[in-house]
Amino acid sequence: MAPRAGRPLTPSSGPGALFRSTIALTSCRQLPIRVVTLRRCRRRGVGETGEETGQMTLPGLDIGDTNLLARWALDTVRDGIVVLDRDFGILLANDAIEELHPNKMPLTGRRCYETFHDRSEPCPGCPYADVLRTGQSRTMLFDHAGDDLTRSYEISMYRLDGPDGEGVGVVEHTRQVTERQLAEQRLLDEINRRRMMVEKSRDGIVVLDQNGRVSEANERFAAMLGYTVEEVYKLRVFDWEVAHPKDAVLQMIATVDEAGDHFQTRHKRKDGTFLDVEISSNGAYYKGQKLIFCVCRDITETKAMERRIRELAIRDCLTDVYNRRYVFERLAQMVAEHSRGDGNFCVSILDIDHFKTVNDIHGHQAGDYALKEFARTVASMIRQYDLLGRYGGEEFIIISRTGSIWETYAMIERIMNTVRRRAFIFEGREIRFTFSCGLADSAEFPRETLTVEAIISLADERLYDAKAAGRNRCIGPTGLLQGLEVNGSARLSGS
Questions:
Q1: Average pLDDT of 390-397?
Q2: Core vs surface per residue 246-271: b (16+ CB within 10 A) or e
């Protein structure tokens, strides 16, 4: 895109006074020709006039072409100046740049990446496109190997805007830097790099002083807690830490060192909700004050997923009650607790009567439906401290903590009456059935002889007896609980 004739081009940022006074170009396309004539005149010495221009006189006299004056001014600048068009083409390069690249002449009329880097395409990571698009200046450092030694240079890029305010090119300002300047720039670059890493981190980062006050925090940490960064700076760690008391937190701050610590905890958000957090922390001293650097990762979803995976591992895939393996693990724990005198418990094994008939008459899909509905019904009627699992096939098991066997009897009675009266509807068809139950109490065993196998075996034996007695009934240590109602209640008879 060529600028309009007679209108100045100005850089969007940077040393504007220099460029506004020197780059008032009528046409960038004319520059390479006129540049040559001026440089020839100047290099022959003051007082000599070049044949090519016919306009150059002694200093102080009129100069007819403002473009020549602009070029003369640029060539007196000890810093390198390059003007590039939108396609990386070099429109102008002053003496300082040409002296820096004597083996690359001529510079104008070529692509910068071809001339300076011997590449056939733009350099990877070149900020040129961003500067042209955004108008934001960019500065970078590079080392240039000359004939005698390697020198360090700083390149600053500024967008050149046309009359319509749209970027038409880029001005590159190159200057040599001293070792001190280089060190300062590199330090600044490192600070900016670290700051960018902190701000762009997907983890929350917070720095605490030894009293738990916030010294530094990034936006991610503030967002995790639902605060602004400004609000976070007014907080102390006790305002969001809920898993540990204040004294414990202060102790952690006091003891954490450079080796650091890694742990999980819970934080409270501004809105009162909670999130699970994984923290990596380490302590360091700065100007005599201890600071604690904390990287905080939100693991709320991860913890929820872990809980779900654990649940799936211990649940029956059809009925969603606990599976046999988990039931036996819990039963083993209760046996161990019982041996230490921590209370009694009961084991009830429930078996749906004539379940094969349900499958034969209604189909296996209906049978699966009946199992799920039966499990859902039983689960809704057991007590909060009871545990329901699928023992196998159409058999289920209930483990109940109880101070009295009669509490378990009463619960089984309510379940038997509910199931007996209920019609399970599958695809418009009624499915009715009953169940039998065998019940064993831990109090029936001496503490030292009670085992998982022993109590399961006893409950299973009584289930077999209940089926042999006509089904639809429960047999426990006190006798037979018939499921057949007599005057509105179940009947208990002696064994």
A1: 95
A2: eeebbebbeebeeebeeeebebbeee
323, 330 contact by CB (below 8 A)? no
Flag whether pLDDT at 485 surpasses 80. Answer: no
Domain residue spans of the chain: 10-176, 201-302, 315-493
With bands split at pLDDT 50, 70 and 90, how would you rate the model's confidence at 25? very low
Q: Say yes or no: do domains 201-302 and 315-493 share a fold.
A: no
What CATH class does 315-493 carry? alpha beta
- Quickly name the fold that domain 10-176 has: Beta-Lactamase (3.30.450)
Q: Closest Cα partner for 40 from 65, 63, 71? A: 71
Q: How many residues does the chain have?
A: 495
- Per-residue pLDDT tens over the stretch 125-179: 788 888 888 888 888 777 766 655 567 777 888 888 888 888 888 888 887 776 6
Position 181 scores a pLDDT of 62
pTM of the model: 0.49
The per-residue pLDDT for range 335-386, each reduced to its tens digit, is 998 888 777 899 999 999 999 999 999 999 999 999 999 999 999 999 888 9
Q: Look at the domain 201-302 and name its fold.
A: Beta-Lactamase (3.30.450)
